[in-house]
Write a structure and sequence with these properties.
By secondary structure, this protein is mainly alpha-helical. It has 16 helices and no strands.
């Protein structure tokens, strides 16, 4: 951190914050942001809708997979907080001059955890995640080699997202946020069924864009802090107008995936209509963020849109099941 960031941190910590270590570790793991974990419901509904046989071995496999997913992501965000504190970007983005951000969400900056504690937590969560994903592979009814390789790559890349080689600092953040969501649908589905399904691919692509479409609003808000530490995102690299167009393109891509799925038969003909409520909310999100200039409200809207999308995906699968 620079001297100015040190002074900013001291100003922020002028009033000591007290909370339990357990609570601080929960905050470090960002367990309140559960949007990736909703993949479980999409996968379960997709298995019911697209397969004729359902093995009881699927349930313990899915439990292990989701528990591993939680641990891997807890490790990722803990490493991210550790790096963001060390380079000063979190002090800039969550400091007293950013009143819309809750400082307790960053335990290192708030002073409720030390960097050493965060680092130990990150490595412990990573080890637990590796063990649980290994268990999911071993106890599942199927283990396609491409799925195993995909999970290994995802695990390794997750640890390098903001730590080690810091992929998110070198222009890979946006693709990772989407790709992680794709993996968290496709991998457990393949472990459960031994194959892949076109409709499931459509759902995975839509699911992965959800977290990305609140991540890009965060990046828009964090431009100055990211630039100060050399963290390369689309928002920190291009002009405001180009960034607005980029986010609009992502929003349109989400709609286009459903539309192409319906037109080609990869998804039911009515699928694009079923996803229309999420599409309309996505348009409102962009308008709020880039026309009205309320980026943080638009970011919060992104969580609601993603959760609505998950609900609509589950309902679409159940309708496919009901229609036979």
């Amino acid at each position: 951190m620079t001297r100015s960031q040190d002074r900013l941190l001291a100003q922020w910590r002028a009033e000591p914050i007290r909370e339990s270590k357990f609570r601080s570790y929960v905050r470090l793991a960002k367990l309140d942001v559960f949007d990736y974990y909703l993949s479980l419901f999409v996968v379960l509904a997709a298995i019911l809708a697209t397969t004729t046989q359902f093995s009881v071995e699927v349930f313990p496999m899915l439990l292990c997979f989701v528990a591993g997913e939680i641990c891997v992501l807890a490790s990722l965000v803990a490493f991210d907080d550790y790096t963001g504190f060390a380079d000063g970007s979190d002090v800039a983005n969550y400091g007293p001059d950013a009143p819309l951000r809750r400082k307790l969400r960053k335990p290192l900056v708030a002073g409720t955890l030390t960097p050493a504690e965060a680092l130990r937590f990150a490595w412990g969560a990573a080890a637990a995640g590796a063990a649980l994903w290994t268990a999911a592979i071993l106890i599942g009814p199927y283990r396609p080699m491409w799925t195993v390789i995909l999970l290994v790559v995802t695990f390794v890349v997750s640890l390098q997202y903001s730590y080690g080689i810091k992929l998110s600092y070198h222009g890979f953040q946006e693709i990772y946020l989407a790709a992680l969501g794709w993996v968290l649908v496709l991998a457990p589905y393949a472990l459960a069924t031994g194959t892949i399904n076109a409709f499931v691919v459509v759902q995975a692509l839509i699911f992965g864009l959800g977290p990305l479409l609140f991540g890009v609003y965060s990046n828009t808000n964090d431009i100055e802090g990211d630039r100060s530490v050399g963290r390369t995102t689309v928002a920190s690299t291009v002009s405001p107008r180009a960034n607005a167009r980029f986010v609009a393109a992502l929003s349109l891509a989400e709609f286009a995936i459903g539309a192409v799925g319906s037109l080609t038969g990869a998804a039911p003909w009515w699928f694009v209509l079923a996803m229309a409520p999420a599409t309309m909310m996505r348009a409102r999100q962009w308008h709020r963020g880039f026309k009205l200039g309320d980026i943080m409200t638009a970011r919060r809207m992104g969580f609601r849109v993603h959760r609505l999308s998950v609900l609509l995906l589950v309902l679409a699968n159940l309708l496919v099941l009901a229609l036979g």
